[in-house]
Amino acid sequence: MINQKQKYNNEDxxxxxxxxxxxxxxxxxxxxxxxxGGMDSVALLHMFVNSGIKTGIAHVNFNLRGEESDGDEAFVxxxxxxxxxxxxxxxxxxxxxAKQQSISIQMAARLLRxxxxxxxxxxxxxxxxxxxxxxxxxIETFFINLLRGTGIGGLKGIAAKSGVFIRPLIDTxxxxxxxxxxxxxxxxxxDSSNISxxxxxxxxxxxxxxxxxxxxxSFRKIMAGNLELLTETESFFHNEINKLKSEIIIQHDSRLxxxxxxxxxxxxxxxxxxxxxxxxxxxxxxxxxILQSVDAQPGKLFYSSSHRLVKDREVFILQSxxxxxxxxxxxxxxxxxxxxxxxxxxxxxIQRMDTDFQIIADPNKAFxxxxxxxxxxxxxxxxxxxxIKPFGMKGQMKISDFFTANKFSIADxxxxxxxxxxxDRIVWxxxxxIANQNRIKSITQTAFVITISGSK
Length: 456
Prior knowledge:
The protein is 41% helix and 20% strand.
């Protein structure tokens, strides 16, 4: 009589061998397994150890959870000793790297992890790097990208193989991994950050997906089929998009020109603009404004954090900011401009001070004395030493002190922009406070009104 464990082992063996074959793993392969200490990676490591394939362990300590992170490292090191496997460990100051790169902690951890994995795999001659992504990860990523509006590229499944990276469990539901761990009595570490609903992924995992499970018991199986279909659709879609791009884009030495007439003739210019411009940092909102400018007069300017797009008579001209002489962290406002689209969508109006003029208490509006402004104005982020004499306060104040007084988090500081004049004097902390010298006074004749359109 075959007991549950024997039956499960046979099924596991067939599943694992089949997955390995699809990924190109052979008996002579050398596989480095990324092990965090969590259930998924511990299960994957156990599968490789039992397969007899040459296996090593790579672990990253991101220094994000203090003693808990150190405990994870000690646990994984003990696994390496238990199985007599090569062990590689790397420490990163993830928060500092995220701040330097102006990216999220999650993105910083991903970049650091994958760069290091590639480095050690090449250095120590590992054929593959295996990560423990599973079907539930795929489904969560689908909903994250759906909510962020990443287009069809973000809705496809996570690739089972990408270069040296392999994901043997990518089609395996979490419930199967949980059963595997239970049957084999495997110990693992619990990550406290997985419990908190502060992260979007966790809210999707704990609050959204259970609703779908209740509505459709076969939800995961159906989603697996959907993701496979979306992956094939995305491949076909991009083949066709690339054909159209080659007809629309003209490459010059330091710029791209996009034929407006050919864009329009496709019948879906918005889609083409999105596919062309998203890799240059333009947002979906900006692309809508660019699309609306098709019939407008030449000269409209649109900025991303790295590029400038100019509406000319017959083409859109795309150049990097370094080629245009504009800093990638500074955005110029020339006198007479009606609006800019980066780093925020700002609209500008010049209004005569008459009896109908009203100043509205709105953090997304700045009412300034036009005659006190020295153009060109500039939008930039704060730097150490910046000072402002805030409206309604006596004396100057460091921007850093303003942040502290208003209890700004690090993320708040990174999201905050400053408006300065041609002499780099601060005119407005966008969304918060204007400078006293630029306020509307009783003798003001002309007002310069700036409006932040949409959210900051």
